[in-house]
């Protein structure tokens, strides 16, 4: 059975179109509130586009009894795909986004994207089915800047947990996070800077693997202590990764990749910090200089792995 896709145009109108139809809209400010649902046996697809996109008290549901659907807000995976990308995207604290498998099957896919800045305060759920199925995939990204204050649940009762990808230009993990106001994030003249600060507690509460991916650098300035069993932490930086605080998982793997894109030199530096995986694996790789091989870009100074 085919379920319709929902496209919300830049003028605020909603179109139900065939699942194989390409969405074409003019750009503009697009503010969404209320309920949009494509739930069914398998979740349908919801696409929200515009130059500046805001979800204000919105409830988007693409859940299904036999599998979660696909929700795209402001763009597709890492800004690729065939839909237009937003420059600014805002999801407020009263908005929920669900692409769950309710009984069997895998959780769906949820993408939040903006070419410039994204502020996310809402809740996303892409859970696997209660009887069988794996957790889904969630990306919340602003190509230049991301203020992530919300939550994403990619858990599975009887399967493998899914993952959450956060993918701005620079990332710093801190004890408190957030630098842009809700009122300003959609403003065309807002310049929030490029370093995205993320509250460590939001990572500690993860119920799915967390992937931090930065075009430039990732800095850990606050302790990470992921409580859920088997949840991993992956950090991919185009340049350097600096670990200045402790990282602890409950059996989950820790992966630290400097020079992730292979374009410039990128090192992994672990200074006076402990990485404790409680049985999980630790992998760290980097390059000290262009053209160098191996892990000569990994430096451990006064650090320890348990």
Gist?
By secondary structure, the chain is mainly beta. It has one helix spanning 200-204, and strands at 5-8, 14-17, 29-37, 45-48, 52-61, 70-73, 88-91, 96-98, 109-112, 117-120, 123-125, 137-140, 145-148, 151-153, 163-166, 170-174, 195-199, 209-214, 218-220, 224-229, 233-237, 241-243, 247-250, 254-257, 268-271, 274-276, 282-285, 298-301, 304-305.
Structure write-up:
It is globular, with a radius of gyration of 19 Å. The strands form four sheets. Strands 2-1-4-6-9-12-15-18-21-24-27 form an eleven-stranded mixed sheet, with no helix packed on it. The longest helix has 5 residues, at 200-204. By secondary structure, it is mostly beta strands. Helices cover 2% and strands 41% of the residues. The protein has one helix at residues 200-204; strands at 5-8, 14-17, 29-37, 45-48, 52-61, 70-73, 88-91, 96-98, 109-112, 117-120, 123-125, 137-140, 145-148, 151-153, 163-166, 170-174, 195-199, 209-214, 218-220, 224-229, 233-237, 241-243, 247-250, 254-257, 268-271, 274-276, 282-285, 298-301, 304-305. The chain contains one helix and 29 strands. The chain has a domain at 5-215.
Please write out the topology.
Blueprint: E1 5-8, E2 14-17, E3 29-37, E4 45-48, E5 52-61, E6 70-73, E7 88-91, E8 96-98, E9 109-112, E10 117-120, E11 123-125, E12 137-140, E13 145-148, E14 151-153, E15 163-166, E16 170-174, E17 195-199, H1 200-204, E18 209-214, E19 218-220, E20 224-229, E21 233-237, E22 241-243, E23 247-250, E24 254-257, E25 268-271, E26 274-276, E27 282-285, E28 298-301, E29 304-305
Parallel strand pairs: 1-4, 3-5, 4-6, 5-7, 5-8, 6-9, 7-10, 8-11, 9-12, 10-13, 11-14, 12-15, 15-18, 16-17, 16-19, 18-21, 19-22, 20-23, 21-24, 22-25, 23-26, 24-27, 25-28, 26-29
Antiparallel strand pairs: 1-2
